[in-house]
Design a protein that fits this description.
Layout (H helix, E strand, L loop, with lengths): L9 H9 L7 H11 L4 E5 L5 H15 L12 E4 L3 H14 L7 E4 L6 H9 L3 E4 L1 H9 L10 E4 L2 H6 L3 H10 L5 E5 L5 H8 L6 E5 L9 E7 L5 H12 L4 E4 L3 H13 L4 E4 L5 H13 L4 E4 L14 E4 L6 H8 L9 E7 L4 H11 L14 H24 L11
Parallel strand pairs: 1-6, 1-7, 2-4, 2-5, 3-4, 5-6, 8-13, 9-11, 9-12, 10-11, 12-13
Helix pairs in contact: 2-3, 3-4, 6-8, 13-14
Length: about 425
């Protein structure tokens, strides 16, 4: 199937071609016709499946079908709400790229930067606004954003917005929007809270679900390198240098750990930068831009800061530390192997992380191959730890059967 067969305008086909795409992804095949029909929709898709283009392209086409009447200020007709600044910036870039041959204007607003330049753009008028909830309410309060003419609403990563405590802001925004509009809700999971939100917002929505979140992309090459905790940084530098990796996204668990690792990599002669919640928006934007352009070899990120990162053709993701929540592993590695491309996900695992590794393998329903690197081996320690973990419950049960007079809390000594 081609993009032409989906009924898109010539200008959009040209923009898609300029991006190097010639055929739609599964979610694009399903979502684009439904949105063009004017249907409300609930969509779920794993990161990297082309979801953003799946709603951006038909929104651009629908707005062009009923052009702005120039006798009044250009009103906001499409609103995309996202949970993070990074995701808002990525969606805005997508809208600009796909809409570059169309007479539509768009802008993005988020916190952490000056509000005045954003106000000036909004006052001049835009067709499409991408925003985070808090900053959008600021603009509404300062009367630089009027939402009364919105025809299309997108709530992107709705589950993440609820997790981050934006539900009250979302409800305030919904009260400012017209009752009759087309609404698209995208969420990694359809929890009871998401379904409750959707029930009060969407009208007979179409359901689109592609690549369930808890399944890993099969074309991602996953491997575990067993290593002692104290030698992780040394092994990471060795892997980057010996394999000549030029673009690596590295995940750590904490902000301080990300800063420390970044300094160590720089000391090793590797161009690196950290991205996390304590960094200013300017620093985060610059680090991401330098990483995309190839000025930086390594971007070290925490899970929260990495939400919404969209890096085309990212070849390598490294779990320097395994996440405490198994689902975050899937989200992390989904940043490589995007849109059908091959990617590699490497995890540096020490003995203390056996539980997280087992949780991840249980979630993805497969064993991740282990490969010891010569000079950095910790395979025996990991294997011994795994055996001990597996035997421990059985030992406890035998001990209880063997001594019926044992005090209840004796095991804890």
């Amino acid at each position: 199937m081609s993009f032409e067969s989906l009924g898109l305008r010539t200008e959009l086909i040209r923009a898609v071609s300029d991006k190097g795409y010639d055929s739609p992804t599964p979610i694009q095949k399903q979502a684009i016709p439904l949105i063009l029909e004017g249907r409300d929709m609930m969509g779920s898709a794993q990161t990297g499946t082309g979801k953003t283009a799946g709603f951006t392209l038909p929104i651009l086409q629908r707005l062009c079908a009923t052009p702005w009447q120039k006798q009044s200020r250009r009103p906001i007709r499409a609103l995309v709400v996202t949970p993070t600044r990074e995701l808002a910036a990525q969606v805005s870039e997508s809208i600009e790229a796909y809409g570059k041959w169309l007479p539509l204007k768009s802008t993005v607003v988020f916190g952490g930067v000056s509000i005045n330049p954003q106000k000036q753009k909004l006052i001049r008028g835009v067709d499409i606004l991408v925003a985070t909830p808090g900053r959008l309410l600021d603009h509404v309060g300062q009367r630089s954003a009027d939402l009364s003419k919105v025809e299309l609403l997108v709530l992107d990563e709705a589950d993440r917005m609820l997790d981050m405590g934006f539900i009250h802001d979302i409800r305030k925004l919904l009260a400012l929007l017209p009752k009759h509009k087309q609404t698209l809700l995208f969420s990694a999971t359809f929890s009871d809270e998401i379904k409750k939100l959707a029930d009060g917002l969407l009208k007979s929505p179409a359901m689109v679900e592609v690549a369930r979140r808890n399944t890993t992309v099969e074309i991602i090459d996953q491997v575990v390198h067993p290593v002692e905790k104290s030698r992780k940084r040394e092994l990471l530098s060795f892997l980057i240098g010996s394999n000549n990796w030029q673009q690596v996204l590295v995940f750590g668990r904490t902000k301080h750990g990300a800063n420390r690792l970044t300094k160590q990599l720089i000391t090793d002669g590797i161009e690196a930068a950290a991205i996390h919640g304590n960094k200013s928006q300017g620093a985060r934007t610059k680090a991401l831009a330098d990483f995309k352009s190839g000025k930086l070899q390594v971007l070290v990120a925490t899970d929260i800061a990495a939400r919404g990162l969209d890096i085309e053709q990212l070849p390598h993701v490294v779990n320097y530390e395994l996440p405490n929540v198994a689902e975050d592993y899937v989200h992390r590695i989904g940043r490589t192997g995007r849109a059908g491309r091959v990617g590699q996900a490497i995890s540096l695992v020490c003995g203390e992380e056996l539980k997280q590794l087992k949780d991840i393998e249980r979630l993805i329903r497969r064993k991740i191959p282990q490969q010891a690197i010569a000079g950095y081996e910790a395979g025996e320690a990991l294997a011994a730890g795994a055996s001990k973990t597996e035997r421990q419950p059985q030992k406890k049960r035998r001990r209880r059967r063997g001594n019926s007079n044992q005090r209840p809390n004796a095991r804890a000594k």
